[in-house]
Design goal:
Blueprint lengths: L28 E4 L3 H13 L3 E7 L6 H5 L2 E6 L10 H11 L3 E3 L9 H9 L3 E2 L4 H8 L1 H10 L7 E2 L6 H11 L3 E5 L9 E3 L5 H16 L4 E5 L5 E9 L5 E13 L2 E7 L6 H18 L3 E9 L5 E7 L6 H8 L3 H10 L15 E8 L1 E2 L5 E2 L2 E2 L2 E3 L6 E5 L6 E2 L6 E9 L2 H13 L2 E3 L5 H9 L1 H4 L7 H4 L1 H4 L8 H18 L14 E8 L8 E9 L4 E8 L2 E13 L2 E6 L2 E11 L2 E6 L2 E7 L5 H4 L23 E3 L4 E6 L6 E2 L4 E7 L2 E6 L4 E6 L6 E2 L4 E6 L4
Parallel strand pairs: 1-2, 1-4, 2-3, 4-5
Antiparallel strand pairs: 6-9, 7-8, 7-9, 10-11, 10-13, 11-12, 12-15, 13-14, 15-22, 16-17, 18-21, 19-23, 20-22, 24-25, 24-31, 25-26, 26-27, 27-28, 28-29, 29-30, 30-31, 32-39, 33-35, 33-38, 34-37, 35-36, 37-39
Length: 707
């Protein structure tokens, strides 16, 4: 847990160590009603405060990191979130079973669910968050907008009516003017959101948003907003207590987003002048006072290109991006949450809050940026967090953990602090480069591209940043030069040799070369794959010579393994010493980190397929069943990732056109619609609603029409 514990730790207890008075209820055991990174984060502060912790887990999370970190753990149900982490009865029962006196909801799942907060209070449990009444009011984005408009806070033009029929939304869209944004009223994190640029696309967007909102929040109520042109997303952290105090702890810029989910956050915002910062901060405090707010909350605003700001929503919980606020204030916001929940007044008043320096956070996701940011699954073959000055890592994973399709794909957060923005950016870029994550496709390389992009460095941010600079950000840097590719292949071959991987490394003459062939995977497009052949000869225990062949070019290499420590190698290649080379093999893939780049090399099997699938499957050549080698039939509709079938839109025998929606998969709290690959007739539907689908499985076939 050492990476999770490296947060600020600089907060003093001035103003918090008060005599225990009436109305104060000390918390001694907290059940964390969440999982992953946030559960580990909450437990970290609880331990520092001397509070016992209880984890909850589904069947998919029985061996997860947050379970291992807690003092106690309770099973709450099967893998599906609806039957476990969203099961209010199971969570309350678990808290009562272990004698917990408080519940921390984390963020996501039930953190903004008024029924959950009410159930906790009814069971005699302290809910570490705002009151159920406030959650309910702000849980409805419709009511929140009306309330803020009444308080004089600017709001985005839109429709928040009770009439939820498609006809009502069509009329509203005509009045507002396109483009518009469909949003789930109970939503957050980009769930249940759709951009609609034409009236004819509105009905499909409404249907999709309702389905996604039901899955994520259990509430299909929607609203409509005018879509602002490339705005910035700026939010203010605020806190209230039960003594009537409300203060704000500064802003966070959250404009770098994909799928309406934040990717990089920072404070202070490069866009705010002192005058604008004061006006927006005052609006946040007004919102808190209007609500009679207690505990942690965030007021989110959209800031247009003319410097006008508009109320977006109030998040009635701790935010994912809270570490950057902690880094510039020196405060522990989870500690503040617990103190307020116990009945203490806020530890500081507004004039006592000090801001120093700059902090930037990047979210590490299991996803493939080169393939529309689709979430990925797999086993964490190696997780190695950076250990650097001014860098904080909040993680919920460890080597050997399994990333499933049941939950959000965020794995960790890496934050960097600096005296100014330039220093924070340099530190974050270096931290990302020195992070190792093997076993599952991830966005580390993409994050590095964003952080170093000239527009980002200059502070020219907007919610359209990734879309605007997609060509720069999504160009794979892996395998940028032949030399890098060849070194990566060499290291992979060395690792496999030293590991003694069964029949692969055996030969009857040790002086003969060990020949291996690899396919370097840079992205999903076949044209970007590079085939490398390695002919490796050991000259002594640690020295070698090799012939590397790639793209018709050959290169002779000589060198030695200077050092070896676990998965780390220091390799001398033709007199060039490369340190901290990371290598790990998992599921038929050799993962190699050379310098700042991570490579995925799939070993090309030298044997014919018919032999591989017979007796030699027991000799180290077994087929990876999750990525079958057989070719998909023409017209196959293939699942891009594991998931659950949410809806089947067509029937067998139905005529469809290329691009028509066919089936909808749910994975990692998001919807993914699969479309017809060509004109034709639906000939076979292999999965029904509710069934689990593995990645790369053929879910449906569309046969061409015969004239």
């Amino acid at each position: 847990m050492k990476d999770v514990t490296r947060h600020t730790g600089t907060e003093t207890t001035t103003g918090a160590c008060q005599p225990i008075a009436s109305g104060v209820r000390l918390i001694r055991k907290v059940l964390v009603a969440n999982r992953g990174e946030v559960a580990c984060r909450v437990m970290c502060t609880c331990r520092a405060m001397g509070i016992a912790t209880v984890a909850v887990f589904s069947d998919a999370d029985a061996n997860a990191r947050h379970v291992r970190e807690a003092d106690e753990a309770v099973r709450i149900g099967p893998a599906m979130a609806s039957a476990s982490y969203l099961n209010i009865g199971a969570l309350v029962e678990a808290a009562q079973r272990v004698g917990a006196d408080a519940v921390h909801p984390g963020y996501g799942f039930l953190s903004e669910n008024a029924d959950f907060a009410t159930a906790c209070q009814a069971a005699g449990l302290v809910f570490i968050g705002p009151s159920p009444e406030v959650i309910a009011r702000m849980g409805s984005k419709r009511e929140a907008k009306v309330l803020m408009a009444t308080a004089g806070v600017p709001v985005v033009p839109g429709y928040e009516g009770e009439d939820q029929t498609d006809a009502a939304f069509v009329a509203a869209g005509q009045h507002i003017g396109y483009p518009v944004l469909v949003k789930a009223s109970a939503g957050g994190g980009g769930k249940g959101m759709r951009v609609v640029r034409r009236e004819e696309d509105l009905a499909d967007a409404l249907a999709a948003a309702r389905r996604e909102a039901i899955v994520a929040f259990g509430d299909k109520t929607l609203l409509l907003e005018k879509l602002l042109s490339e705005p910035r997303h700026v939010e203010f952290q605020f806190f209230g207590d039960s003594h009537g105090n409300v203060i704000q702890l500064g802003e966070r810029e959250c404009s770098i987003q994909r799928r309406y989910q934040k990717v990089i956050e920072e404070t202070p915002s490069p866009a705010l002048t002192p005058e604008l910062r004061e006006r927006m901060g005052n609006a946040a405090v007004i919102a808190g006072r209007q609500l009679g707010y207690t505990n942690a909350g965030t007021v989110e605003f959209m800031l247009d290109q003319e410097g006008n700001f508009y109320f977006l929503e109030v998040n009635t919980r701790l935010q994912v991006e809270h570490p950057v606020t902690e880094m510039v204030t020196g405060l522990d916001l989870v500690r503040w949450q617990i103190l307020v929940a116990e009945g203490y007044p806020l530890p500081l008043m507004q004039d006592d809050v000090q801001f120093k320096g700059h902090a930037i956070e990047a979210r590490v996701y299991a996803e493939d940026p080169a393939n529309s940011f689709l979430p990925m699954t797999g086993t964490i073959a190696l997780w190695r967090a950076p250990e650097m000055e001014g860098v904080r890592v909040d993680g919920g994973i460890a080597t050997g953990d399994i990333v499933t399709h049941y939950y959000d794909p965020m794995l960790a957060k890496i934050s960097a602090y600096g005296d100014d923005r330039a220093q924070a950016l340099r530190r974050l870029g270096s931290a990302l480069a020195n992070t190792t994550l093997f076993g599952v496709r991830n966005n580390l390389d993409f994050l590095r591209q964003v952080v170093s992009h000239p527009a980002h460095v200059s502070g020219a941010l907007s919610t359209a940043f990734i879309e605007r600079y997609a060509d720069d950000l999504l160009t794979p840097s892996i395998g940028g030069t032949d030399t890098d590719v060849q070194i990566a292949a060499l290291v992979a071959a060395l690792h496999q040799h030293f590991a003694g991987a069964g029949l692969r490394g055996w030969r009857n003459n040790r002086n003969r070369a060990l020949i291996e062939s690899y396919e370097l995977e840079t992205c999903t497009e076949p044209s970007h794959k590079v085939v490398i052949e390695v002919r490796l000869t050991l000259l002594s225990r640690n020295s070698f010579s090799a012939l590397l062949v790639s793209n018709g070019k050959s290169r002779n290499v000589q060198g030695a393994v200077a050092e070896q420590s676990g998965v780390n190698l220091a390799i001398d290649v033709n007199g060039h010493l490369i340190r901290s080379v990371g290598v790990e093999a998992a599921d038929g893939i050799v993962w190699v980190k050379v310098g700042f780049d991570t490579y995925r090399l799939r070993r090309r099997n030298p044997l014919p397929q018919r032999l591989i699938s017979s007796s030699l499957t027991q000799g180290g050549y077994a087929i990876d069943r999750r990525e079958p080698n057989e070719a998909h039939p023409d017209g196959a509709v293939v699942a891009p990732m594991p998931g659950t079938v949410i809806a089947v839109i067509v029937t067998e025998g139905q005529l469809v056109h290329s691009g028509d929606p066919l089936i909808i998969l749910g994975a990692m709290k998001m919807e993914h619609t699969l479309h017809a690959p060509r004109d034709g007739v639906v000939a076979m539907i292999r999965y029904g609603i509710g069934e689990q689908v593995r990645g790369s499985a053929v879910v449906m076939e569309v046969h061409a029409l015969v004239s």
